Structure to design on (482 residues):
C-alpha cells in the first residue's frame, strides 16, 4: 500500500509508505495523503471477520492499509492493547432504537468520544515506529473539542514525542476543556487560542508550512489530516456492518460531522466492499457540508456557536480527500480549487463534481432546537440520554429514512458520552448525566493551559520553547536499514 498527496500536480505522483504517512501527517505540499489504490474484500475475507472481537477486526482491516509497515501479529498486539481497557467489552456496541434505527456507541474509551477508537491505537503506532527509527516527533493538532482530549490521553508521558493541542477558547464544553487541561504530563500542552476552530486548524497548517520549524521539531499530526486516523475509523463501520449481516445485507449510516473525516472513513469502508446503501451527513447550523450536498454551494459563513461545538466548523479539511476523487485525482486541480476557496470564501462551482458527490452522500442540517427535541424524544422513548452530536445524527438519520428510504438497517453514530455535554442533556431531559466513575474527580483537578492569540508567530514561539528535543539535538537514525 502506497500513498500520494492530494495536491501533487505531477502525472506520476511521488508515493509514500504507511510508516512515512503516519509520521508526516501532512504532505510537504500542504496536501493530505490518500491511498494510491484500495483493495476490495473478497468473500473469504468477510467470513474471517464474522463474529470476531473488535481488536481482531481492527488488526485485519489496518493490515490492508499498513502494507509491510506492520505485520498482522504486531498489529494484533497493538489493537489488543489499544482496546483492552475500553469500558464496554464490545468496544463499539450497537443499540437498537426502533425497527430500523440503530445507535453505534463510540464513546466507551478513556475520554468518552469516538476519537479514542483511532487515537488509542495511533499513539501505539507512533511509539512502535519511533522506537524502530530512533526518532522523536513533535505532534501539533487542532481540536473542536474531542480530538484534543483523546490525543493528549493517547500521547501523554511518551518519551519519543511531545504534543501540542490548539483549541478555541470558550468554544468547547467545560468537560471537553477539563479533559485537556487536567492532563499532567511534561510532554503534553493544551493551548487555548483566541479564535475559532477554523483558526486553530489554519494555525496548525501554518506550522507545517514553516519549513524550518517542521524540520527542526520533526512535526507530525494526530488530527484527521493524518491518514492513519482515517484508517482506524474505517474499522467500526466494518465491525457494525458485519454484526448487522454484511456483506449479505446492505445497511446505511448517518454520521454527525464537521471536518468530514469520520464520514470519509465510512466512504472508504464502502470502497472496501461494505454494502452501504445510504451515507448521510448530519451537521448543525454550521451547515456548509449539508448546503453543498443540497445545492452545490460550498461557501464559508461566520461560525455559529451551537450545542454541538465539535461541529462548529466552516472549513472541512478532510473534504479535500473527497475533492481529489471528484477531480479525477488531479492534484493540480485540487490545489487550484482550494486556493480559490481560501481567497474568495467559496469553492468554484463544478456541477459534475457536485452531482458525483450527491450520488455518494446526502446531507441534513439540524439546529439547536431540533437537537434538544431529539434528545428529549429518545429519552422519552427509551430512557437513554444521548449527547447533542449524537442527536444530530439520530435526527438526520430519521429524515434520511423518511426521504430516501434506503435498504436494511440505518446506523446513527453516537460520537460522545452525554456527560461531556451535561448542560444541553439536562436542558432536554431534566436529568443531569453523571460522569463515569473514572472521571468523576476531574472537575476538582487543577487545570493547566496557555492562552495565546490567533497569531502564528506566538504559537510557533511557544512550540519551539516547550518542545523537549529538536532534530539538531538528537542522534540521527541510520537510514540504511529497511
Amino acid at each position: 500500500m502506497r500513498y500520494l498527496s492530494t495536491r501533487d500536480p505531477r502525472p506520476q505522483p511521488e508515493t509514500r509508505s504507511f510508516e512515512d504517512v503516519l509520521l508526516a501527517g501532512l504532505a510537504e505540499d500542504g496536501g493530505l495523503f490518500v491511498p494510491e489504490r484500495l483493495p476490495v474484500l473478497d468473500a473469504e475475507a468477510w467470513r474471517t471477520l464474522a463474529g470476531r472481537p473488535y481488536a481482531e477486526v481492527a488488526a485485519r482491516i489496518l493490515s490492508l492499509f499498513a502494507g509491510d509497515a506492520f505485520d498482522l501479529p504486531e498489529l494484533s498486539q497493538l489493537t489488543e492493547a489499544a482496546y483492552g481497557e475500553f469500558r464496554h467489552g464490545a468496544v463499539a456496541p450497537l443499540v437498537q432504537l426502533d425497527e430500523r434505527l440503530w445507535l453505534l456507541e463510540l464513546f466507551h474509551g478513556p475520554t468518552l468520544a469516538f476519537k479514542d477508537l483511532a487515537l488509542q491505537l495511533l499513539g501505539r503506532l507512533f511509539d512502535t515506529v519511533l522506537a524502530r527509527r530512533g526518532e522523536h516527533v513533535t505532534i501539533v493538532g487542532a481540536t473542536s473539542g474531542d480530538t484534543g482530549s483523546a490525543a493528549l490521553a493517547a500521547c501523554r508521558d511518551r518519551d519519543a514525542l511531545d504534543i501540542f493541542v490548539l483549541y478555541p477558547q470558550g468554544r468547547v464544553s467545560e468537560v471537553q476543556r477539563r479533559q485537556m487541561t487536567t492532563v499532567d504530563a511534561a510532554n503534553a500542552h493544551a493551548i487555548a487560542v483566541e479564535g475559532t476552530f477554523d483558526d486553530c486548524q489554519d494555525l496548525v497548517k501554518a506550522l507545517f508550512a514553516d519549513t524550518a520549524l517542521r524540520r527542526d521539531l520533526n512535526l507530525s499530526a494526530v488530527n484527521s489530516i493524518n491518514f492513519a486516523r482515517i484508517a482506524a475509523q474505517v474499522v467500526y463501520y466494518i465491525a457494525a456492518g458485519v454484526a448487522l449481516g454484511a456483506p449479505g445485507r446492505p445497511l446505511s449510516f448517518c454520521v454527525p460531522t464537521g471536518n468530514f473525516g469520520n464520514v470519509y472513513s465510512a466512504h472508504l469502508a464502502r470502497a472496501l466492499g461494505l454494502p452501504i446503501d445510504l451515507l448521510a451527513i448530519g451537521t448543525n447550523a454550521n451547515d456548509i457540508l449539508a448546503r453543498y450536498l443540497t445545492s452545490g454551494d460550498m461557501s464559508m459563513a461566520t461560525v455559529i456557536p451551537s450545542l454541538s461545538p465539535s461541529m462548529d466548523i466552516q472549513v472541512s479539511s478532510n473534504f479535500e480527500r473527497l475533492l481529489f476523487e471528484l477531480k479525477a485525482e488531479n492534484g493540480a486541480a485540487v490545489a487550484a480549487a482550494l486556493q480559490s476557496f481560501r481567497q474568495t470564501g467559496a469553492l468554484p462551482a463544478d456541477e459534475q463534481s457536485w452531482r458525483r458527490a450527491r450520488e455518494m452522500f446526502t446531507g441534513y442540517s439540524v439546529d439547536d432546537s431540533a437537537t434538544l427535541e431529539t434528545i428529549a424524544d429518545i429519552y422519552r422513548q427509551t430512557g437513554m440520554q444521548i449527547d447533542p452530536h449524537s442527536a444530530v445524527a439520530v435526527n438526520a438519520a430519521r429524515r434520511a429514512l423518511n426521504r430516501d428510504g434506503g435498504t436494511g438497517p440505518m446506523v446513527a453514530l453516537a460520537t460522545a458520552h452525554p456527560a461531556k455535554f451535561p448542560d444541553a442533556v439536562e436542558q432536554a431531559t431534566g436529568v443531569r448525566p453523571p460522569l463515569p466513575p473514572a472521571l468523576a474527580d476531574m472537575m476538582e483537578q487543577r487545570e493547566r493551559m496557555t492562552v495565546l492569540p490567533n497569531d502564528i508567530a506566538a504559537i510557533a514561539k511557544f512550540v519551539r520553547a516547550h518542545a523537549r528535543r529538536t532534530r539538531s539535538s538528537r542522534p540521527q537514525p541510520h537510514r540504511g536499514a529497511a
About this structure: The first strand starts at residue 3 and ends at 5. Residues 95 and 103 are 5 Å apart (CA to CA). Residues 91-111+230-429 form a domain with the Rossmann fold fold (CATH 3.40.50.1100). The chain is about 45% helix and 15% strand.
